[in-house]
Predict the structure.
Amino acid sequence: MTVFAAPFKGSAARPGASPNATVNITLELDASRLKFVEQNGVFTDKIELSLFAADASDKIRDGGQDELDLKLRSQTHDAVQKAGGIRITRALEVPPGKYQMRIGARETNGGAVGTVVYDLDVPDFSKSDITMSGIAVSSAFASRMPTANPDPLFKDVLPAAPTAMREFPRGDALALFAEVYDNAASISHRVGITTSVLSDEGKVVYTTSDERKSEELQGSRGGYGYSTQIATAQFPPGRYVLRVEAKSYAKNNPTASREIEFRIK
């Protein structure tokens, strides 16, 4: 089981509501561990899921148990086998803080069990003049994997569901999405957003920039949705770091950034 979690400013964090963030979780399960039973052309299995977010005092702030009944037609079953797995998305609502994400899965037919413990820092998106969500990444290669219950947040901003994969074939097309939260929108200014890819030696091998205007937010605090695509054919096999940085040209030019490590094979 491979897992990636990204915090975003959820609907509960709008003015007048509690300051919870939405943690979007992507799980990808190894197809070789799924023991489907075929009957009348339908392949069935059941996945028991357990997802909990524990804060620094070990208090569970959100989570629960869930079941995913897989009833796949032959075409979808073949796609799961060819892609090497199936993707599941879930979301938790938590206030700002440091969390330990405890994620478990059990496959019913064969009894295979997997667990992941994931440390995650959920920022207070309202405290600084400029803040940034996590980065969601999709790829053409990873899009072959069927997704159960795709997260609607990414439907119109990514060409495919976000993936937990961090190793991609050379020539793959990567796409990313992040939100930049501007808390100084009452002052007219610009926000520059730069995406860079750094080699293992720290050399910048790719960069692109965009600019947004505070007028888009009509004087209120809010977020700029940001997406871009990166062709990997220019990258030799190896390890890289994807960095997204936002810089506000208001007051003291505050910045916010996020990084993800990935590999090209």
In short: Helices lie at 74-83. The radius of gyration is 20 Å. The longest helix spans residues 74-83.
